[in-house]
Amino acid sequence: MKFLSEYRDPEVARQYLDEIRKTITRPWTIMEVCGGQTHSLVKNGILDMLPDEVRMVHGPGCPVCVTPLNLIDKAVYLAEEKNVILCSFGDMLRVPGSEKSLLEAKANGADIRILYSPLEAVNIARDNPDREVVFFAVGFETTAPANALSVVHADRYELKNYSILTSHVLVPPAIEAVMDDEATQIEGFLAAGHVCTIMGISEYYPLVDKYKVPIVVTGFEPVDLLQGILMTVKQLENGEHKLENQYARMVRPEGNPHAIKTLEEVFDITDRMWRGIGVIPGSGYELKAKYAAYDARLKFDVNIPEAPESDSCIAGEVMKGIKKPFECPNFGKACKPETPLGAPMVSSEGACAAYYHFSGMLEELETVQP
Amino acid sequence: MCLAIPGKITTIESKYDGLVQVAKVSFGGIIKEASLEMVPHAKVDDYVLVHVGVAISVVDEAEARQTFKYLEQMGEVAEELNIHGFLPDQKEYS
Ligand code: SF4
């Protein structure tokens, strides 16, 4: 219980752990979909504290990890075009492309800027009317409204030099993809809290019915995660499958109607390629035809051939919860944060990076195989 | 990247000839701009949950303080607000 004393409420955390131990009678496999939750589970030592019967597997909810290789190559290409200022969240920069990462392109002199918000990119476009500004718009439902709003702002300012390269992905179709995989052993899900702050919870009812699995909308702090796990375990032990909301203090059933309206205004639902996983039908957003002028892919007619993925990276299996990061033969050896072979070793939300930085797995691995 | 940080609205001003309303939000003393377009009823002194420069919900003060304290303890605030970094030169852009 090394980190328990640092929690918001250590006593409550202890009670949840005790109750999980008392409730559980057999092993259960539970997936947390969101990479932020993976990060919190590993960083806070929760995986070590849970009883062995709780088998947590880590989901595809890492936007950086699932952004296709080809899009990274496109971003690199755009950044190296003379007149483009490529703006991105910091996490994307180290992800290996087929030839280089954005960070390497930046080191070679490409104008790449790391931003906190897509709205800053619009302001950069305003301030640089003679340059093209492209924002690399990755993210799940939590981030999509901000990226959509950047297009709304650019439209309001009548900017002609702003566009976004979208890689927007959605949680519910990812849950379907994970459950439709024959190798899946997942019996319950923690759904991502802030995704539901935006979207509400109604999309998850059909999934609970279709796959007969409990889904508990859960927050990010240790006490949230422990309570979410307890709620899931209770349902599993009772043979139930319901949608429950652990994170009601931040998640209203209807979500944020203003954000949903903005998403509907700007985006259409489309099929999306998930790196390591493949195409998932209806799993992402693309700009609506009326905003086509802001679509970097159409604006620049970038034709970069699909490069083959490294076949030594098993990110797909890791993100579907079939394998754990340390079951990858490259983990901590050929693949480290400084020399990543795959995106999950780069992003702070990637399961491989989380295990590498925060868990004792690496030492264990090294003692077993010196 | 999917974290959202609670902060307190200190001012709301209109920018670019009134085309956008921008709030200054204090995250434990660190001031960042945030859009209130997803929470149009938010007022000065309200606490809002902010994700990548956009407020996504209004939260009560006690909840905001507790969440912030936790995130700060865990070292997540600086990372999410992009105020110090794993990349040496990002300050010039933030
Ligand atoms: S450890 Fe590296 S190579 Fe293995 S799955 Fe993770 S990112 Fe891919």
Automatic annotation (TrEMBL), chain A:
Superkingdom per UniProt: Bacteria
The entry's keywords: Iron, Metal-binding
- Read off the InterPro entries from this record: Hyd_form_HypD, HypD_1, HypD_2_sf
Q: Which residues form the signal peptide?
A: none
> Do you know which Pfam families this protein is assigned to?
HypD (PF01924)
Is Iron one of the keywords? yes
Keyword set includes Transit peptide = no
Q: Which GO terms describe its molecular function?
A: 4 iron, 4 sulfur cluster binding; carbon monoxide binding; iron ion binding
Query: What does the record list as GO biological process?
Result: protein maturation
Family annotation (PANTHER family) = HYDROGENASE MATURATION FACTOR HYPD (PTHR30149:SF0), HYDROGENASE PROTEIN ASSEMBLY PROTEIN HYPD (PTHR30149)
Family per record:
Belongs to the HypD family.
User: What's the protein here called?
Assistant: Hydrogenase formation protein HupD
Q: What is the lineage of its organism?
A: Bacteria, Pseudomonadati, Bacteroidota, Saprospiria, Saprospirales
UniProtKB/TrEMBL annotation, chain B:
Query: What's a GO biological-process term for it?
Result: protein maturation
Task: Tell me the InterPro entries matching this sequence.
Answer: Hydgase_assmbl_chp_CS, Hydrogenase_HupF/HypC
> Pfam families under this entry?
HupF_HypC
A GO molecular-function annotation:
carbon dioxide binding
Which superkingdom is the protein from?
Bacteria
**Family of this protein:** Belongs to the HupF/HypC family.
What is the protein's given name? Hydrogenase assembly protein HypC
Source organism (scientific name):
Phaeodactylibacter xiamenensis
Q: State the organism's lineage.
A: Bacteria, Pseudomonadati, Bacteroidota, Saprospiria, Saprospirales
